[in-house]
Design brief:
binds pyridoxal-5'-phosphate; Aspartate Aminotransferase, domain 1; alpha/beta; single chain; 14 strands
Amino acid sequence: MDENTLTMTPGPTAVPEDVREAMAKPAMNPDVNPEFASYYETLLDKLARVYGTDDDMVVLGGEGILGLETAVESLVAPGDDVLCLANGLYGDGFADFVEMAGGNPVVHDIDYTEAFDPDHVAELVESGEFATATMVHCETPTGLLNDFDEILQTLQDAGVLTIVDAVSSLGGTAVPVENIDVCLGASQKCFSSPPGLTTMSVSDAAWEKVEATEQDGFYTSLAPWQDADFSFLPYTHLVSNLYALEASLDRILDEGRENVFARHESAADLCRKRGEELGLSPFPGSESLCSPTVTAFEIEGQATDVQRQLYDDHDILVTTGLGDLEDDILRVGHMGYNATETNVETTMDALESVLD
Ligand SMILES: *Cc1c(COP(=O)(O)O)cnc(C)c1O
């Protein structure tokens, strides 16, 4: 791994030079430097613009999983029924967090290649007394992007709070944040920042639930962040990571959100087209389910070998599947800064020569 390695993984993604340099700036002391509060406010403002929301923003010091656990711990009261929509590994995983919080997960799991049927979900919502629902926008391990527009509307109409893991789609494609109560992101995916920060939008309804829910934890609770005084945050923030995140957000805002989304779309289109030419099909059942941020190709029993050869012989880093599908899925991340047609072309040329 060096400057020349082409990192095409679906997170952590390649970090551009200006973001790395921002991270090396002299670090403010958040509790002492009088400039910190206004710096932090500006950062959250930029984050809200990238999210495309007026909701409050919270940034936690910790990798993306911290956000998943914190959102569930903070919003799920013991005994709450929680609808967990699952068509992938992360969707399944939410149920474990719900149990840890003392809630009752009701898992609606469908095949990992399929989309949710909004009518079926509406029936489920009607048949239960759900306080909250959890779901995953982009299932990174299988390259599947869910369209939740109708489902989110149903849940909102029924007064069910929504926690959406958009860790691997936020900043790379449009996310319906306005209809989500807690929308989770992380620095190391489409933002192209180093791992270390969790981001989330929190709606007014979500804050009300946080207040109404007894919080056992501190580090995994949103309560200390409600109306937090920016000159005296609940704990010392990861200042250098904040600098990096700000530089990443600036890049997205300078390029323009729509342009960034279009760049991901065209990289993904090219990736699938080149794959098709090599006889590889994307894992999700239909093309309309394929994520613009990551492509998962079915490549039975070969993924580990191919992944290693791409790195050893071509200095290109991609990744395999997860869990049972480790050796059957090869994943190309076109996520963040490296999501360009040129990089996808280089990657697929190398893949072609490895498969030969
Ligand atoms: C990357 C990712 C996370 C964060 O957790 P990891 O420790 O990097 O796995 C959470 N959810 C999704 C969908 C992700 O892609």
